[in-house]
Amino acid sequence: GFMGAGGATAGLESAARWSPLNWRYSYRLGRLDRAVGRNEQAAERFRHAIELYPGCGHCWVALAEARAAQGLDPRAELERAVAHGSATTTVRTRTAVLYARLGQRDEAVREFSAALGGHRKDRRGFYDQLAALYPADFVLDEIVEDIDLPSFFSWARSRATPQLSART
Questions:
Q1: Which residues have a Cβ under 8 Å from the Cβ of 34 and sit 6 or more positions away?
Q2: CA-to-CA distance for 139 and 128, rounded, in angstroms?
Q3: Phi-psi region for residue 22, left (φ > 0), alpha (ψ -120 to 50) or beta?
Q4: Most buried among 9, 23, 32, 86, by the most CB within 10 A?
């Protein structure tokens, strides 16, 4: 049956006690804390997961998000997220979004460009996300590579202006 958030938390807490070296439990508990707005507690759980597995790119970006939600500077954690999660599309995408929210355009563009290669199946959703953050012309000029032009053209035909489609 369905287990509510309290049941999920209790189950993860119990599992963490039985297997204290498994970083995943702390990470999952941190995600639950973030989902309900307990960012300080989430940050502590992500730090614990990182202590157990310093190479966890997901943990680093999650810690950065929790710190940003607390009004703290997440840039050091974002650098570590990229260092440890450079081959993980979701880490690069989440890092890019946070850089964009921080107003760090060059870093965001770099991360979105890196993440684009990993979005093979759902390019439309990724382009929608980019267009929500930046003008579509900027996305074409700064993020989309030549190899990505066919998928961007398909997206532009259905979601953008005829001028952008023609330009693509």
A1: 42, 62, 65, 66, 69
A2: 10
A3: beta
A4: 23
Q: How many CB atoms sit inside 10 A of residue 144's CB? A: 23
The token pair at 113 is 């460009």
Token pair for 20: 């204290």
Residue 13: the pLDDT is 63
Over the Cα atoms of the chain, what is R_g? Answer: 18
**CA contacts within 13 A on the Cβ side of 74:** 29
Tokens for 56, please give them: 């966890």
Q: Which of 138, 137, 74 lies closest to 106 in space, CA to CA?
A: 138
Low-confidence ranges of the chain (pLDDT < 50): 1-4
